[in-house]
Amino acid sequence: MTDTGPISRRAQRRARARRRRRRNAAVGASVLLLAAVATGWAVYGRGGSPADAAARQVAAPGTAPAAAHPAKPAAKAPAEPAGTVTLAFAGDVHFTERTADRLGVDPALGPMSTALSAADFAMVNLESAITSRGTAQPKKYHFRTTPAALGALKRSGIDAVTMANNHAVDYGAQGLQDSLAAQASAPIPVLGIGADETAAYRPYVTTINGVRLAVVAASQVQDYTNQAFRAGPDRPGIASALDRPRLLRAVRDAKRQADVVVVYLHWGTEGQNCPGPEQKSIAADLSQAGATAVVGTHAHVMLGSGMLGPTYVAYGFGNFLWYGSSPYPHSDQTGVTTLTVTRGKVARAVFTPALVDGNGVPQPQTGSAGTAITDRYAQLRGCTGLATAPH
User: Where are the beta strands (DSSP E) in 220-277?
Assistant: First the structure.
């Protein structure tokens, strides 16, 4: 029996008031990022509404083959139509020096977390070892953080990270073992490292909205880490794109398991805004192997993006949450790229511009500032040989 007396009616009025307050708060929190999305949309692509990318709060229900990777929190809005998935990508992040205290801030990635959380699946590069031990390796820069970084990234809307990069093993074999231990208990999938090459190249596979998604990660950077700590049959380390046949085999294997295959690479040359011949060559090979999207970081500046046949290629996302200033022009320009993939094909690409502030945190850019970043990003396509992405 339903109570329709005065107490129940007062409770109903209070509940309605709470709902109105929550809606008003949510609208206020979204205004800045929606403006940034609209800025990117106006220059980069015009398909659909600008609110589609930032206001859609869909959580990825995917689970890893092992039960160690819980799904995102419950969805905040209706999902895309069956057969459609949205994928968001950003660049290099770590928690050291000026960004170390971001581990105590939610969301750690700041207001750009809204653009990441809005996608069904979001991914960044964790440019760091996860250890407090080990020996600094013979190289100039050394980055490390604690396992808390993975939880902080999850709370920022990130669904997976790659550690296939030139800083994953900055603290040697002991540091690598600690990173692998953190991987085993992580709240999100950690790709591109493993106890052997099978584990390092293994794709993360999940189903989102009826779409089977596979993600592979590897490093193409020719450095100490890729030589001394490349994963082998019986050796822990990173997945290497320098072993191209092995990477292509991993991508073909992923394609057999999934409708959509993403390859997230650490590649290119620091400070260079145009991809080199090796980047273009590997992108072409990965496209032939069945990759839906090939994306990556490393250069500390943005590089162009677009279509290589049926494959979306983003040659460089730049810095995202970054410990210090880089000597390269425009190294503080960054953003989030969101792809809409329908029936296995990239149907739309949206860029949300941002600028890394004095604390190392990416801040959404609107108005003329946002347009300037988005215009420049679009112009960077000129030296890539890529076609304009669908919009």
Answer: 237-238, 260-266
Distance (Å, whole) CA 204 – CA 221: 22
Could you give the maximum distance between any two Cα atoms of the chain, in Å?
Answer: 75
DSSP 306-318: EEETTEEEE--B-
Percent of the chain at pLDDT > 70 equals: 79
3-state secondary structure of 302: strand
Per-domain residue ranges for the chain? 6-383
Q: Which amino acid is at 195?
A: A
What mean pLDDT do residues 269-275 have? 98
CATH superfamily of 6-383: Metallo-dependent phosphatases (3.60.21.10)
Query: What integer pLDDT is reported at residue 24 of this predicted model?
Result: 43
Average pLDDT on 344-357 reads: 98
Q: Which residues contact 213 (CB under 8 A, 6 or more apart)?
A: 62, 85, 87, 121, 205, 206, 207, 258, 259, 260, 261, 262
pTM equals: 0.82
Does the structure show a pLDDT above 60 at 121?
Answer: yes
Residue 203, pLDDT score: 98
> Which residues, 6+ apart, have CB-to-CB distance to 366 below 8 Å?
32, 35, 36, 38, 39
Residues 86, 91, 92, 95, CA torsion sign: negative
Asked if residue 340 has pLDDT above 50, the reply is yes
